[in-house]
Amino acid sequence: MPAIARPRPPHTDWATRASGFSMPSGHSTTSALVAGLVCWAAVYGARRILRWCIWGPAVLWAAGVGLTRICLGVHWPSDVVAGWLLAAAYLAVMVAVTRGRLPGSRSPWTPRGTD
Questions:
Q1: Is the bond into 2 cis (omega within 30 degrees of 0)?
Q2: Bigger pLDDT: 61 or 74?
Q3: If you average pLDDT over residues 17-32, what whole number do you get?
Q4: What pTM was computed for the model?
Q5: Distance (Å, rounded) from C-alpha 15 to C-alpha 68?
Q6: Are the C-beta atoms of 4 and 55 separated by less than 8 Å?
Q7: How far apart are CA 44 and CA 103, in angstroms?
Q8: What number of H helices and E strands is found in the chain?
Q9: Which one of 14, 18, 93, 105 has the minimum C-beta count within 10 Å?
């Protein structure tokens, strides 16, 4: 946030208190990271049908957190999208780095059909 130093929307539009800069939304980033980690854990720890029961609420929760920041007037829509994209980038790197190192996962270097 300090690197970008984008100001928040006007105080008159706020329905709650907020501090610091606006971009990216910390709430949106954190909720998307948690939802992503929950979904990622479900891939390795839940049956296929149960995964959808975990993924749906997790994704809806993260989306809801981001949308409430806009509705409360403390973030611009682009701040929320930036938070989601930051979380997605972090999760993508994490998955790429750990692929093949977790139980039940396939190494990216193993040809298909040989595992």
A1: no
A2: 61
A3: 80
A4: 0.72
A5: 10
A6: no
A7: 8
A8: 3, 0
A9: 93
Q: What is the DSSP string of 13-65?
A: G-SS---S--SS-HHHHHHHHHHHHHHHHHHHHS-HHHHHHHHHHHHHHHHHH
Distance CA 39, CA 59 (A): 8
Residue written as tokens 């690197």?
3
User: What's residue 106's pLDDT?
Assistant: 55
What one-character DSSP code corresponds to residue 12?
G
35 token code pair: 């939802």
Angle at 95 between CA 92 and CA 100, to 5 degrees: 150
Token readout for 53 is: 């029961």
Residue 22: Cβ within 10 Å count = 22
Collect all residues with Cβ–Cβ distance below 8 Å to 15 and sequence separation of at least 6.
71, 72, 73
